[in-house]
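// run 5 | inverse folding | seed 20
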């Protein structure tokens, strides 16, 4: 059912995802959908979980920072594959088991990198919001006047900046935005 909703959204945007359209795509009545999800909000939560499943979990043998970078880059790839659905990641909470698993992977990597648990939760929110915001801007066309090389460089620079913030919480020096 979530796969059918994802296909509909990829083709026609989020407005194309209705209980009726999903039921039609599956060849069932709309009432049959309600046996699996309580309402459209739960279906949208399922889409969030589905997108985050595509991010996957980082390879555990990678150093924590490399795990975080791999997840950020994978999230960007997911945005490129599902631009119409990606904005849901900014508007819906991580509520499904798949969504929570990705969040937990980020928290684990931060804690393995020496970030205290109480700070890791805040850093996860800030890092996730920055990466999600960049990717949402990219898939919405905000950077269309720039070459892909420039956008790629900007994304890597964002990751460097975020790495600096993590360094600050791990006891390193946080670079000043003005360079000093």
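// decoded
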């Amino acid at each position: 059912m979530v796969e059918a909703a994802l296909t509909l959204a990829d083709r026609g945007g989020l407005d194309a995802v209705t209980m009726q359209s999903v039921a039609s795509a599956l060849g069932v009545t709309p009432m049959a959908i309600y046996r699996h999800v309580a309402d459209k909000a739960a279906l949208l939560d399922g889409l969030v979980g589905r997108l985050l499943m595509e991010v996957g979990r980082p390879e555990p043998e990678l150093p924590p920072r490399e795990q975080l970078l791999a997840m950020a880059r994978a999230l960007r790839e997911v945005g490129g594959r599902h631009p119409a659905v990606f904005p849901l990641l900014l508007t819906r909470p991580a509520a499904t088991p798949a969504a929570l698993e990705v969040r937990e992977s980020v928290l684990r990597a931060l804690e393995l990198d020496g970030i205290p648990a109480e700070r890791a939760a805040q850093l996860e929110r800030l890092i996730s919001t920055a990466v999600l915001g960049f990717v949402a801007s990219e898939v919405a066309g905000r950077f269309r006047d720039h070459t892909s090389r420039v956008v790629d460089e900007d994304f890597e620079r964002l990751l460097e900046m975020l790495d600096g913030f993590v360094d600050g919480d791990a006891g390193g020096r946080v670079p000043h935005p003005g360079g000093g």
